[in-house]
Write a structure and sequence with these properties.
Helices cover 2% and strands 50% of the residues. It contains one helix and 30 strands. A four-stranded antiparallel sheet has the order 3-2-1-30, with no helix packed on it. Strands 4-5-6-7 form a four-stranded antiparallel sheet, with no helix packed on it. A hairpin with a 6-residue loop joins strand 18 and strand 19.
Length: 377
Amino acid sequence: MRSIRYTIFMVTIAVFSVVYFGCSGGSDPLLPGEVPDGTKVLVANSLGETISQINYAAGGKIVQNDIAQTGQAPNQFLVNGNTGYVLNSMSNSVLSFEIDTMTVNFEASVGAGKSPFNMAFINNYELLVTNFIANDCVRLNVHPSFTGDRVIATIPLPIGAELPKDTGVDSTNGSPEAVVIDANTAYVTMANLDAMTYTAGGPGLVALIDLPSNQVLSTIETLGRNTVGLCHDPYSPDKMYIISAGDMDPATWAWEGNGKIDVFNLSSKGITASIDIPAAPFEMIVAPTGIAYITDGMEGKLLTMDTATHALGPDIELVETPGDYSFASGLAMGPNFLLYALEFNNDDLIVIDTSQGNVIVDRFKMGDGPDAVVVIW
């Protein structure tokens, strides 16, 4: 999904937004690369500020671009039942709509100038939203019958002297980005950026928030820099991956390729392993095969990693001729081991069969600057 830092500071990054929805595809076994009828793919286009849709029916597919308007700079998609939620970074809002009709239910402000970055469900009718510039999180009531200000609580995050800094750095911004909720605890990444250069100004952090009290319990210093993403492993519920994009040259905005992924145990609340990533990782998703797929902010490709051994595997090139802003901007798992990946610069949605050697089985043109994707089946 397109991050607010790319929009404001021209940093080519992709935000952590991964959603799973699944049910039986029917009694007949699916062939490799086949998609069951009734599958729907929704894409938020960050530059176009629209929604694209793919419907699979009668063995075919119907692609519709720009079928509905979003807010400014949409960068995340969530779905709950028949209701979709789009996070809009530049218009500081969450848009709720009915998936079948694209009818808007409401657009709720998180507060002027906050630049919301990521969101996660606390329960069916409440979201926790991270705010990149405001350095806080808000709890948002999304019940359809709720009236009044939907922001029901604001949770400040560590600032100033509470943040570790590199020698010579005067001040940093916490810059919260990704969020994962596990039981009564929310985990929020903090990039810890130099207030002058917007590059890493110290080690990355993860803030632990107690949801019953809306209080920050502690912060964990990661082993990486510019900590931007989280991935809760759906096949190993006690495991969460902390993703750090690494350093950038403040003069050229070029990534240095010193990314890091830390393995975090949710029970012991500690880092158990750390993997060097020779790239700028931002988003990660784990397939049923046990292979993780990781977006790279440096190039239009996906990295792969075996979650059992942490060994890196072959890269997946998404485009033949990557441009200056080529990068995978969104990931979602679909049915039948299919991975859906967005490539921002070429407006592509690429479908990869993770059970057949990561072969690309389909490619679609989306709207302008696709940045978030969700698959419903």
